[in-house]
Design a protein that fits this description.
This protein is mainly β. It has one helix and 29 strands.
């Protein structure tokens, strides 16, 4: 979540928003070419197709390959939606992030989503302040959820935001305070920093990074030797890269790309969710849309979404990029492809 302060003052809009699947093809945006190498990854003339709109703040897309549908969060309405070419748009899970009975404000829904090796959905829940696992399979489930992790060193997490699984089974996740009504000033806060953590299959929670001001999206390089982490701070709008050591810890943290000078009305959005293709190129939501970097950190170009953009995911056969951008669900064809969980 990178638009918290903006949206907290607009919570009344939830009652009047209407979600619409797009029946006729609507194309928006453009591809901004900075380097000819981008042409190997995407057609410079490609545009984004609007699949559905009218959401409140879309996030956390993940493609379910065995059933050919996309799941994504609408954070402020506390829902996970399912989109497929066959059945358009349906509510998949409600409530998705806050299951309590006491009314509360703020970003209380689900955010990041991923699928584990047992093909269960893992959900970063802002309102319940945990990562949960949905019981049942992805085509036949109820709303029952099991807690995967909700504490570090005996203290309640803030609001887990994004999550990614290592092939070892270790889960890496970020825990900024976007889901707390007053952020880091919220009286319910129990941890004094916003961290990056790992959770091993045997249940050990380890703090990996506590120095980032607003840790958010994260993704591994194809060989899992590098973990990329975005920092959603308009005064330090950066992506970090860390070496992943054999024991799962991180070292050699360095700035991969600094987009602070791009932040502003001309380029809406901040570093948020990101994905990495099979060649190591990074597709990262940030100022202007989806910024595309090669593994060396060169900015090859931007998929201009025309609005603040939260996240993206590879789908179909891996050569389609699905994008959650503000009130929209979008997609664009690629010339490269990425792995699907």
């Amino acid at each position: 979540m990178t638009m918290l302060n903006y949206f907290l003052g607009l919570s009344f809009l939830i009652s009047v928003l209407h979600v619409f699947p797009t029946s006729a093809q609507q194309l928006i945006g453009s591809v901004e070419l900075h380097h000819e190498a981008l042409e190997d990854l995407i057609d410079p003339d490609a545009q984004l197709e609007v699949l559905a709109d009218g959401f409140y703040w879309t996030e956390g897309p993940v493609w379910v390959r065995e059933h050919e549908f996309l799941l994504f969060s609408d954070v402020y309405t506390n829902k996970i939606y399912k989109w497929s070419a066959e059945n358009d748009l349906q509510v998949f899970l409600e409530p998705s992030g806050y299951t309590g009975s006491v009314d509360r404000a703020g970003a209380l829904g689900s955010n990041g989503l991923t699928i584990n090796s047992e093909r269960h959905l893992l959900i970063a829940q802002h309102g319940d302040r945990r990562i949960a696992q949905l019981k049942g399979n992805l085509s036949d489930h109820d709303s029952a959820l099991d807690t995967v992790v909700d504490q570090f060193d005996g203290a309640k997490l803030h609001s887990p935001n994004d999550l990614v699984l290592h092939s070892s089974g270790t889960l890496y996740f970020t825990d900024p305070a976007y889901g707390l009504v007053e952020g880091m000033s919220d009286p319910s806060k129990e941890i004094d920093f916003q961290g990056v953590y790992s959770l091993t299959p045997d249940g050990q929670v380890t703090l990996l990074e506590s120095e980032l001001s607003h840790p958010n999206g994260l993704a591994f390089s194809p060989d899992e030797k590098i973990l990329y982490v975005s920092n959603s701070n308009p005064e330090e709008a950066i992506w970090m890269a860390y070496d992943v050591l054999p024991d799962g810890s991180l070292s050699n943290g360095r700035v991969f790309f600094d987009a602070t000078d791009k932040v502003g009305n001309e380029f809406p959005g901040l570093p948020d969710g990101l994905k990495v293709d099979v060649h190591g190129n990074i597709f990262a939501s940030g100022p202007g849309g989806i910024l595309v970097f090669n593994p060396e950190g060169d900015h090859l170009g931007t998929i201009n979404t025309t609005t603040a953009t939260a996240n993206c995911a590879f789908g179909d056969d891996g050569s389609t990029l699905y994008v959650t951008a503000n009130m929209n669900l979008l997609r664009i064809p690629l010339r490269t492809h990425g792995a699907i969980p």
